[in-house]
Amino acid sequence: MSGLVIVARFASRAEAIVAQSLLRSEGVETLMPEFNVLMAEMDPSMMEHGWRLMGLAEDADKARNILRDAQQL
Fold first, then answer.
1. Dihedral, CA atoms, 36, 37, 39, 42, nearest 10 degrees?
2. What are the domain boundaries of the chain?
């Protein structure tokens, strides 16, 4: 069983949600540990490390490739 790794970081919650939806449509499940941090929308300094998408280590390369390819469109 593999552990969780950070597959991507985003500056905003909206970007992270779009990326997570794209990955899910490609069969890659991720989670966003900070999803319920509502105060971060009002005070961005609370999100020092950005919005993280985490997934299984075995899926990390696939997830990063999907996100990279989507940015090139």
1. -90
2. 4-71
pTM above 0.90, yes or no: no
The predicted-structure confidence for 16-72, as pLDDT tens digits, reads as follows 999 999 999 999 999 998 776 665 555 555 566 778 999 999 999 999 999 999 988
At 43, list the tokens.
């005070």
CB neighbours (10 Å) of residue 30? Answer: 22
| Strand blocks (E) in the chain | 4-10, 51-56
Please answer whether residues 56 and 4 qualify as being in contact, where contact means their C-beta atoms are separated by less than 8 angstroms. yes
Q: Token pair of 71, please?
A: 């940015």
